[in-house]
């Protein structure tokens, strides 16, 4: 993975840290890239389990299992 891609993925995860739902359009605008580019990034992040996405809703940061169990 290129340093540029790694940095952008880090910024996307950081931006999602507030726990809210983010749309691909909003993320694309903030990162100054196309929505299609965000779809590719999100597919990679979803594959790692870091991000959860729902069609028509948006993307959200996946909570760690220990946080979900209150530990």
TrEMBL record:
Organism this protein belongs to: Mesorhizobium alhagi CCNWXJ12-2
A Pfam family recorded for this sequence: HTH_11
Helix-turn-helix type domain location: 23-59
Entry protein name: Helix-turn-helix type 11 domain-containing protein
InterPro entries documented for this protein: HTH_11 (IPR013196), WH-like_DNA-bd_sf (IPR036388), WH_DNA-bd_sf (IPR036390)
Lineage: Bacteria, Pseudomonadati, Pseudomonadota, Alphaproteobacteria, Hyphomicrobiales
């Amino acid at each position: 993975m290129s340093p540029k891609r790694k940095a952008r993925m880090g910024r996307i995860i950081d931006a999602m840290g507030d726990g809210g739902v983010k749309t691909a359009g909003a993320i694309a605008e903030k990162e100054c890239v196309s929505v299609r580019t965000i779809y590719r990034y999100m597919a990679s992040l979803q594959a790692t389990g870091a991000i959860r996405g729902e069609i028509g809703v948006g993307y959200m940061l996946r909570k760690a299992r220990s946080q979900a169990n209150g530990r």
